Amino acid sequence: MTMYFSDEPDHIQMLRATLRRFIEKEAPRPKREEWRRAQAWPRDVFAKLSELGVCALTVPAEFGGQGPDWYAATAVIEELSRCGSFLAGPYIHCAFYGGGNVAESGSPEQKAVLLPKIAEGKVQFAYGFSEPDVGGDLASVQTRAHLEDGGDTVVINGSKRWCTGADWADYIICLVNSDPEGSKYRNLTLVLASLQGLCARQRFDGHFGNIGHATSLSRASGSFSGRNSPAEIRLAWSQR
Fold this sequence. Notes:
Pfam families: Acyl-CoA_dh_M, Acyl-CoA_dh_N. The chain is α+β, with helices and mostly antiparallel strands. It has helices at 10-26, 29-38, 43-50, 70-80, 85-105, 108-119, 230-233, and strands spanning 125-128, 144-148, 153-158, 160-161, 171-177, 188-194, 199-201, 216-218, 224-228, 234-236.
């Protein structure tokens, strides 16, 4: 059940009304049934949604955004959820996973390249936290990342699961152990890695309404590795 406040700002009320009209027109029940059967989310409809400027709500104005306005962005999720996760899911992956993390922890290069694309809804992100042998104890992740070539290259090796959206996202925000000999919790790093070349497997078809959202990420060997320059990949690397 959606909870509303009687004193919501006018722009939030207008936003809600706009999104309700959008859903009525672009995501009626017959279309949602087609998407459910196809086990896919509608990229064409999401592109139209992005034209309303909603993905820009978590992006600072200097990068082409309208925010951050977290109240408004949360209202978007509430309204989109009226038709399930078909649009709300990709919106969260783009505006929150992407916009929130890159704006807060991204390098100047990452912000300049990614935030304008996020504001336009043209890039998607997934989270890579849990692993085959690690569930909720994220401090025990085994995926490793280390620097090579004098700090100019980040090398990542490991495997992840429960990576919702791994089959269609452009990047994965991956939690790694960057200092195996370091103290627990202080040896963790977030890296932003491209999903190109990785294999995502669908594990739960349609469960929990996450239509078309793959949840397991690996290479054929059950692991993945990659080499990227720090300017492109690191969100929050700890130098020790």
